[in-house]
Write a structure and sequence with these properties.
Elements (H helix, E strand, L loop, with lengths): L1 E3 L2 H13 L4 E6 L5 H13 L2 E6 L19 H10 L4 E3 L3 H4 L26 H16 L3 E5 L3 H13 L5 E5 L19 H6 L1 H15 L5 H13 L4 E10 L12 E10 L2 E10 L1
Parallel strand pairs: 1-4, 2-3, 2-5, 3-4, 5-6
Antiparallel strand pairs: 7-8, 8-9
Helix pairs in contact: 5-6, 8-9
């Protein structure tokens, strides 16, 4: 596996692969990889001739007082996992390689789409995501890029950005990967102590309960959200950021289960902010 730290190294290698007629897949990550990330790499390997994973904690998507400095990092372990899963290149740049000191250009969706859900309390987050993903698309020029459904709003926003800016890249969404007890895999799970780790199960329990209501025919999105909220509030260590039902494409709030609906949540367990969701087709 090639370990690249410079944009020029990535471009040279990808150019060579494309000369050989090979297809290229990209898996953008912030490192500290887990089985969820590996499921994206596995999907990419199955669909592309060559796979590039980025391993970069992107500072522009962190707001003040968020966990940029403490975000977990273990590049050597990441490399072992990527090699085991057949990744062909990892791109691990310094911040100075990705951003000029006087950088003044950002990519931002100006509709209300990024203002919903996580955007309500993380106002600059999706501007940072769109900017770094755009840069990675320009650096790697992949045929396909792979993102997890756990970050459902991010996935929807990237699809919109790719459409609006004519990137010509196929965006492949991949299912949420869960621990054996149901908790969605996340790099931030490592922040949880034993008591918090047990308390965090309330997220997936609420997701499964909401799914069951929808599967049994409940069409009132507000009733589903209310039941999930009540369940989460029964856990003393849980503090809700949001539980919401939105249109699966536009991310705008909905009252009824019609078409594709995303039911998503962000919940603090202690100081750790976790997200989870499910999609229901009405």
């Amino acid at each position: 596996m090639v370990k690249a730290t410079k944009i020029s190294e990535v471009r040279d290698q990808v150019r060579q692969w494309k000369k050989e007629g090979l297809t290229v897949g990209l898996v953008p990550t912030m490192g500290f990889l887990h089985e969820g990330h590996m499921s994206l790499v596995d999907k990419a390997v199955s669909m592309c001739d060559r796979v590039v994973a980025s391993d970069f904690v992107n500072p522009t998507q962190f707001g003040p007082n968020e966990d940029l400095e403490t975000y977990p990092r273990d590049f050597e372990r990441d490399c072992r996992l990527l090699e085991e899963h057949g990744c062909h290149m990892v791109f691990h740049p310094e911040v100075s390689e990705m951003y000029f000191d006087d950088a003044a250009t950002y990519v931002e969706i100006l509709s209300d789409m990024p203002k919903q859900l996580c955007g309500k309390t993380r106002p600059i987050h999706f501007r940072g995501v769109c900017t770094v993903v755009s840069k990675l698309f320009n650096i790697v020029t992949p045929d396909k890029a792979f993102f997890g459904q756990k970050d459902a709003q991010q996935l929807a926003i990237i699809r919109r950005m790719v459409r609006d800016l004519s990137f010509g890249i196929e965006i492949v969404g991949c299912p949420i990967v869960r621990e054996a007890d149901g908790l969605a895999r996340s790099s931030r799970n490592t922040y949880l102590n034993n008591e918090e780790r047990q308390a965090a199960l309330i997220l997936s329990k609420a997701v499964f309960a909401g799914q069951k209501m929808a599967e049994e025919g409940e069409k009132d999105a507000n009733k589903i959200v209310a039941a999930m909220t009540e369940m989460i509030e029964s856990e003393p260590l849980a503090k809700i950021d949001y539980v919401s039902a939105v249109d699966g494409v536009s991310m705008m709030p909905v009252d009824k289960i019609e078409g594709s609906v995303l039911v998503a949540m962000a919940v603090y367990i202690g100081k750790t902010r976790l997200i989870d969701n499910f999609i229901v087709e009405g």
